[in-house]
Amino acid sequence: MLNQSILDFLTELRENNNREWFHANKKKYNAAKKDFELFVELSIEQIKAFDPGISGVNAKDCLFRIFRDVRFSQDKRPYKTNFGAFLAKNGRKSRYGGYYIHIEPDNCFLGGGCYMPESNVLKAIRTEIFHHPEEFKGIIENPKFKKHFPEMYGDKLKTAPRGFPKDFEHIDLLNYKHYAVGKMISNEIVQSDQFVSEIDESFKALYPLNRFLNEIVQDL
């Protein structure tokens, strides 16, 4: 079960997003971060039961920093108001498909796949789908998958990606900019012991997509 300290800290941070408050409450932050790190470690163990590809991954490699890069942003708030972790081979900076946990009051979600893949990775994914469209459709149209992730994340290209024929029967499958998915989770579920089973069911449904993507990525 997710420790209440995590949501409590993030709620306070949202209302006091400044360096003075953060430094005055550094102990609260460290406690909440430690609790989230432990939750991620337990989630890794949970996922390893059906996806051996994340064996050897640890929580510290998966957690995103809470500090925002404000150099080129009009929003100068110094801190993110969420804790996030990407559970994948090689951790949060991995090019591999993985599993994402986002904890933020009133905006918690689970997701995964390949978000913002590098251009060579994106082209390789599209090429594989071009040659095996039915295999990919079988994954994203599977009822267990669609129950949790009814659609792929993000905008699509309006025309065929460069290098692929415009008249390809399944061109819509190649137009994604990300091969990632996500689903919102209510605060009530996140704060209950049901969250663990929600992670288990959602990520088991996501695993076939990650397996498809990672078989491509590992050959690059």
TrEMBL record:
Signal peptide: none annotated. NCBIfam families: TIGR02453 family protein (TIGR02453). This is DUF2461 domain-containing protein. It comes from Marinifilum caeruleilacunae.
